[in-house]
C-alpha cells in the first residue's frame, strides 16, 4: 500500500501545540517579570520613603537641636548682657556714691578748716616771696662775684699790656688791651650798681682811646711796609723748609711773633705749626711772645685746643709767653715779626704736600718734603718794638693806672 504523505494541515497541526506552549511560557515569564519589577519598585519606593522619613527625621532633629542651641545661646547672651548691665549700673551707683561721699567730705572739711586753708595759703605765699627774694639775692651775689673775677682778670691784662707797651712790644700790648676791653664791656653790661657801671664806662672811654692810638700806629707801620723779597715755589720741589725759606729773617732781634693762620683744621696743619714754632725757638734766642690767631675747627676743636694748650705749657717752661685766640672772620694768612718784617703767603704755613706714608723721608726734616705751588712775599716796615721814651712812659702810666 502506498504510504500516505502528511499534508500541510497535518504538519501545521503537528507544530501548533508546540508554539502554543512556548507562547504560554513567554506570557507567564512576562507576567512574572512585571510582577517582580512592580514588587521591586514598590520595595524601592518603600525604601526611599523610609529613608526619606529617616532623613527628614534626622533633619528635623538637627534643626530642632540647632534651634535649641541658638535659643540657649541667645538666652545666655541676654543673661550675660543683663548681668553686665546690672554690674555696670551697680558700679555707676557705687562710683557716684563714692564721689558724692568724697564731695561731702571735702565740703565738710573745707567748711571746718577754712581758716586753716587761708593761713596755709598765706604762709605759702610768704615762703614763695622769700624764695624769690633769696634767689634774686643769690643771682645778684653771683653776678657781683663774676664781675669781681672779671675785674681781677681785666687788671691783670691791663698790667701785662702796659708792661708790653713800655718794653716796646706793641703788637702784644694791642692784643692784651683789646682782650681787656672785651671783658670790660661784659662787666659794664652785667653790673647792677649804677655808680660802678658809670665808672666802668669812664674807664672804657680812656682805654678805647689809647687802644685806638695803638691800632693806628701799628696800621701805619703795616701800610708803610715795602716788599723786599719774592719767593716762587714750583710744584713738587724739595729743599724748601721754613728755615731755608725765611730763616734769615729769624734772628736775635726778633722778640715777638704773631702768626695769623685761618686754617688749623687738620692734624697735618697742626704738625706744620709745631714745626714752624720749633724753627722760631731755635733761631730767635731772645723770643719772648708768640701768639696764634686762627679760626676754630668745627671737626677737630678738641684736638686743636689740646695741641695749642700743650704748646703753651712747653713754651712757658722756656720763659716764652704763648697765647692763642680765635677769630672767625680771619681769611688771609700772614706772619708778623717784631722787627717789622711781614711774611705773606696765600697757602699760609701749609705749603707742603701730604705724605703718602708716615715713615718716609721728610717726617722730621721738612727739606725732604715736596711742596705745593706757592708764592711767598716778604715785606719790611718800621719795627714794632720801639721802646717808649721816659716822658711818654710817665704819661701812659698816669693815664692808665689811675684805676
From TrEMBL:
The UniProt annotation puts the region (Disordered) at: 1-76, 118-143
Domain MITD1 C-terminal phospholipase D-like, chain residue ranges per copy:
239-379
Instruction: State the signal peptide span.
Output: none
Q: Which InterPro entries does the record cross-reference, listed alphabetically?
A: MIT_dom_sf, MITD1_C, MITD1_C_sf
> Residue spans with biased composition (Basic and acidic residues)?
22-54, 61-76, 118-136
Comp. bias (Polar residues): 1-16
Q: What is the protein name stated in its UniProt record?
A: MIT domain-containing protein 1
Q: Which gene encodes it?
A: MITD1
